[in-house]
Amino acid sequence: MNVLVINAGSSSLKYQLFDMDTETVVAKGVCERIGIDGRLTHKPVSNGKPEFKAELPLPTHAEAINAVIEKLTSPEYGVISSLKEIGAVGHRVLHGGQKFSESVLINDTVIAAITECIPLGPLHNPANLMGIKACQKVMPGVPQVAVFDTAFHQTMPKHAYIYPIPYSYYEKYGLRRYGFHGTSHRYVSKIALEMLGIPAAGSRLITCHLGNGSSLAAVKDGKCVDTTMGLSPLEGLPMGTRSGSIDPTILSVMAANEGLTINQILDVLNKESGVLGVSGVSSDFRDIEQAAHEGNARAELALDIFDYDVKKYIGAYMAAMGGADAIVFTAGLGENGPETRERIVAGLEPLGICIDKEQNNVRGQQRDITGKGSKVKVFVIPTNEELVIARDTKEIVGK
Ligand code: ADP
């Protein structure tokens, strides 16, 4: 069965077509500038056909999906002969609120529930819905599945997800910690258990998804018991451009002194903060590391703040779970940043954690980087959120 995986943003739509018999990607690409002018990049992977890259009008997500189908089936750039060869579509959906603890087959009720979650994910859920509705229009009758970033974290106990604010806000508006990157934390924690050769029952993992957006999860007995992101992806660690957790009083001082509205302040905290805000250099850790090597003190400070925070959460989650069997590094920086990994675990020997410097010199590959005498295993595991979406979709549609 071929499964089309869609990750729809407000003006972009990324896709990967999987052959699920072999779990391989046969084509992938991205539509950009939807609703503006439009650009499609399409890469056939399986058959050596050329890449297609051109500007073309994409007024809505429906035209974008149409263009994707056209390329997937075209004699020149295609990998399948007709739409009939797409057995199902899997959609990444950001916010499933409290309604979804696992992936689901999309029907009208599910669409209504995702719509109800818009206040919790105002930037992403409307875009995800546009992707779903466009597929329904262009590919009627093809089953579609929603895979939620929040679902894996629904097993958190109440003491980990309730904010200490008046309880009525939770009851009235669902204000609680939800957590994100759930498909990634779920994927790498499963592989970590295989690498450890132990069952989920009794296991304790700390999964560190470190990319442009970053979050940690504490995974006990194979289930998430805590995570650093909250109601939105703004909470927790400092990130590329997001502040992570800060004292909310800062907002009132910013408003009073800069004359900013609450939305403008949230924009600053989402888009101008994090390692970009501190370093003034870039949101990309590669640029910041380079600047730090060249003696830029604020770039060094930005890295120090980030590493220190990840270290603190590792300690916190070890306390929360009474120890850890393994720490997992994943996502852009976690997979490709040996220096970051080294700085994060430096000084954790008293907690039984150290890495092997030679083994740690790895980028984008699964590897056990545990140091000699370390009680806690340390793994690098490349994440693959699209594969999780394709697997869930196949499983649900096959039921
Ligand atoms: P997103 O959260 O957008 O999915 P990714 O998981 O792709 O992001 O991570 C992107 C980030 O990973 C980049 O901004 C960069 O900081 C970091 N990164 C990627 N490759 C490297 C590398 N070789 N060395 C250091 N950092 C890297």
From TrEMBL:
Q: Which residues bind substrate?
A: 92
One GO-annotated biological process of the protein: acetate metabolic process
Q: Give a GO molecular function annotation for the protein.
A: acetate kinase activity
Do the record's keywords include Cytoplasm?
yes
Swiss-Prot/TrEMBL site (Transition state stabilizer) positions: 181, 242
Which residues are involved in binding Mg(2+)?
7, 385
User: CDD domains attached here?
Assistant: ASKHA_NBD_AcK_PK
Q: Which pathway does this polypeptide act in?
A: Metabolic intermediate biosynthesis; acetyl-CoA biosynthesis; acetyl-CoA from acetate: step 1/2
Q: Where in the cell is it found?
A: Cytoplasm
Identify the main location: cytoplasm
**Keyword Transmembrane helix among record annotations:** no
- Kindly state which keywords UniProt assigns to this record, in alphabetical order: ATP-binding, Cytoplasm, Kinase, Magnesium, Metal-binding, Nucleotide-binding, Transferase
Cofactor(s) the protein needs: Mg(2+); Mn(2+)
Q: Enumerate the catalysed reactions.
A: acetate + ATP = acetyl phosphate + ADP
- Record function comment: Catalyzes the formation of acetyl phosphate from acetate and ATP. Can also catalyze the reverse reaction.
NCBIfam families in the record: ackA
| Known partners and oligomeric status | Homodimer.
Protein family (similarity comment): Belongs to the acetokinase family.
Q: What is this protein called?
A: Acetate kinase
Q: Which organism is it from?
A: Sporobacter termitidis DSM 10068
